[in-house]
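Supplementary Text 2. Reproducibility record for the structural model of the 208-residue chain.

All settings were left at their defaults, and a single model was retained for analysis rather than an ensemble. We include the record here because the model underlies the residue-level annotations in Supplementary Table 4.
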Amino acid sequence: FVVDGAVGIAAADEPWTPARLVRTRVFWMIALGMGLGFGTVSGWSVHLAPYVQDLGGSTQWSGTLVALAQGVAIVGAVGGGMLAERRSSASVLVAILVVLVCCLGVYLAQPGLVVVSALIVVFGMVSGGAMPVYSLLLTQRFGPTAVGTALGLSNLCLLPFGVAMPVLGGFLHDRQGDYLGMITVCALALSLAAVLLAAAGRSEARAR
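Retained model, structure tokens:
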């Protein structure tokens, strides 16, 4: 394994081939962090409508909230991109994940439909900021000529989490009768993703 991203500066003329990427520790920090993050958000989104209905929301209201969360993700994408131009991409991603964990923490307190509805919109907007920042992080780390390869390889880390989370959520709901278990798992998973990306950010700082 390459210890950190410093090799990218010391050997900048070497192309970032798939073989070189998978031997680089910081690539796995980023890929696993964002695979876990995106997979968790995707898995939670599958259960969003039934979660709202469990809290007493109508089918129409739950559908409206899902649509709103998806719509405001565009606003989040713009805001996330602007922040990443002024701050470290890794630190912006960590901040996004921390906000998402905080939203899930409030869900665990079972505050009621009104507060949950507002937080669903916030969750959707903030999570929407992750993808452009993620793409920028890969570009900064591995260069514009390798970003496609890095993005494609890192998406392989998304697959198992994206498949497992919706199934796990359904299993936990059927056993417990509510979504508290699923919310706890999602909060822990996003916290781990934040730790991995923070570690990648520290590696980036050392490489400078």
